[in-house]
């Protein structure tokens, strides 16, 4: 009898790591099941698991309310007769939108154009043009099953041999290292500067490029996440220009992950600027691929799997090749494509849905800003903790100094010290965070990432504070 063994599989897959759903998340899930099945006899020191590990706003327990407009359009697209059956329920602009989309799409149960419904791509192009003030070509836009699908595709195309490298910010969102590992490419790390609020430095990137070239690696592309995950940092235009010039000099493709472009808290001193705008303003011919998603912002429609990427300065033969590859997968989910349409064409002032849409989006923005502020202020009060009050995205990435005895205990337990700390936090409080080792950090430094999505901040930050003080004390103080 033949059995399938792991060593018969693509060895590259064994190197894939994705901490966001790794050891901590798996253990948290076990606790959640234990709480549910064992009732009052669960024997755990907490009554609920707090999923601070993942930017999945509508997840049970985080419960960010969906935007009504999005759900109403989706409902009518799923079952068009609802517009007749529940005439008084749906505002006029929702009914008009659904009719318009139905005329373009037909049934959501059918495959669409592989690149995405042309009408929706046209709307995406208008959105980009309005945002940046530069034209956008709908034929250079690909709708995707979330930004992840686009990133994965582009990385797999760019890695042409095992010496191909892609520059990755450290800390980074682990989609990048995971996809590189799966495609047997080399990640070339460049460090963000924590002391300068996680700034991106062109000279540091250049040093990373030079180092990689000396080792025989061919840098092919540079990834920038703006606003950053896990740092929340927001790039200023001068830095962006330097990055563009650097990519030109070294012949790199720029992969701009801009999925958090609307997640800006009030503290930010400048607005979000897209790399597309900077590239156009400089008159640059740099090849650029920009990614966006319906999973973040205040829509938080992660499960619909919607996003797009726009190609700038990418030749027609490469666009044709991308088209060929996406056509193998037939098309992105229609639910996601409809979500993208709602994201790029929200209700406008004067539309029946506008007031509610405005109230809902303002409320979520305010909650995220308030939680970020409260959490960073309280974390900064803790011994050995420093936390940049991030201007954007959905996360904080505090740095923790750990007592030597704790580091020793972690090593004995066969864990990274920050994983050891995060496991202790989960076991004591039910709070699930992701250790910095999952995102990358400088040797000898420790961090963890937590999201700003959990309601009840006072309660759970209180539990986190108590755990931290106890942990530091248990291991002999700092
Ligand atoms: C920086 C970044 N890029 C891409 C993604 C992927 O998002 P999605 O595939 O849901 O659009 C995420 C998800 O958290 C992210 O943080």
UniProtKB/TrEMBL annotation:
The keyword Oxidoreductase does not apply. Keywords: Aminotransferase, Pyridoxal phosphate, Transferase. Its cofactor is pyridoxal 5'-phosphate. Gene3D superfamilies: 1.10.287.1970, Aspartate Aminotransferase, domain 1, Type I PLP-dependent aspartate aminotransferase-like (Major domain). Transmembrane segments: none annotated. SUPFAM superfamilies: PLP-dependent transferases. Residues 92-452 form the Aminotransferase class I/classII large domain. The keyword Transferase applies. Pfam families: Aminotran_1_2. One of its GO terms (molecular function) is pyridoxal phosphate binding. Signal peptide: none annotated. Belongs to the class-I pyridoxal-phosphate-dependent aminotransferase family. Alanine aminotransferase subfamily. PANTHER family: ALANINE AMINOTRANSFERASE, ALANINE TRANSAMINASE. Homodimer. This is Alanine aminotransferase. It comes from Lactarius akahatsu.
